[in-house]
């Protein structure tokens, strides 16, 4: 193998290792953000989530975590992080499902107090993606009910009635 080929192989290996270490570091910051949030260190959580997203800006869960931390530290930034998570992977059930409670809080908090239509859009995205998932439907119904979206709630309950009628008998959200 020529010297140029060896240098090229070594350079490729170096780039691969650097990329892997960057992704690993982003995961460490993400974990630190979750731990900090759990202990009430919201500033630390926010800083770690930002570092994770900066190191790996293609990972939706970093932006979901960032939005959760921003709800406490800087709520006006949270909607942008939630949309970024969606844009990165609009076919990710975890993202579609897990942003619903965050959007609900953003429609209730004093700052920025988003219109309920933003929450409706998030719920509709999840329901459209997983129309036969009873868990998604129950979550949607829960937040539709909390937000006073009576017509949407009733339609969702009809879907649940078709999917899992037993849930209507015992699930607190659906009573």
Number of strands: 0
Q: What is the CATH architecture term of the largest domain?
A: Alpha Horseshoe
Q: Can you tell me the CATH topology of the largest domain?
A: Serine Threonine Protein Phosphatase 5, Tetratricopeptide repeat
**Which stretches are poorly predicted, pLDDT < 50 over at least 5 residues?**
none
Rg from Cα: 20 Å
Number of helices: 10
The arrangement of helices and strands along the chain is HHHHHHHHHH
Round the mean pLDDT to the nearest integer and report it. Answer: 90
Which percent bin holds the helix content?
over 70%
Strand content: under 5%
**Based on the structure, what is the oligomeric state of the protein chains?**
single chain
Shape: elongated
What's the main sheet like? Answer: none
Q: Given this structure, which CATH class of the largest domain is correct? A: Mainly Alpha
How many distinct folded domains? 2
Straight-line N-to-C gap: 73 Å
Q: By helix and strand content, what is the structural category?
A: mainly alpha
Keywords: Signal
InterPro entries: TPR-like_helical_dom_sf (IPR011990)
Signal peptide: 1-25
Summarize the structure in words.
This protein is mainly alpha-helical. It folds into two domains: 1-89, Tetratricopeptide repeat domain (Serine Threonine Protein Phosphatase 5, Tetratricopeptide repeat); 93-175, no CATH class. It has helices spanning 3-38, 42-55, 60-73, 78-88, 93-98, 100-108, 116-129, 134-146, 150-163, 167-170. Helix 1 packs antiparallel against helix 2 (42-55) and helix 8 (134-146) packs antiparallel against helix 9. Keywords: Signal. Residues 1-25 form the signal peptide.
């Amino acid at each position: 193998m020529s010297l140029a080929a060896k240098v090229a192989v070594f350079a490729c290996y170096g780039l691969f290792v650097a990329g892997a270490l960057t992704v690993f570091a982003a995961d460490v910051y993400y974990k630190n953000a979750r731990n900090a949030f759990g202990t009430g260190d919201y500033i630390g959580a926010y800083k770690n989530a930002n570092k994770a997203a900066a190191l790996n800006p293609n990972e939706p869960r970093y932006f979901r975590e960032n939005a959760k931390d921003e709800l406490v530290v800087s709520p006006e930034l949270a909607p942008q992080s939630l949309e970024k998570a969606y844009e990165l992977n609009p076919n990710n059930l975890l993202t579609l499902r897990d942003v619903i409670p965050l959007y609900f809080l953003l429609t209730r908090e004093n700052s920025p107090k988003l219109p309920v239509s933003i929450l409706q859009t998030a719920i509709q995205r999840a329901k459209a993606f997983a129309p036969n998932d009873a868990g998604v439907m129950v979550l949607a119904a829960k937040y539709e009910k909390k937000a006073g979206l009576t017509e949407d709630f009733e339609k969702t309950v009809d879907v649940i009635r078709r999917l899992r009628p037993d849930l209507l008998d015992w699930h607190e959200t659906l009573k």
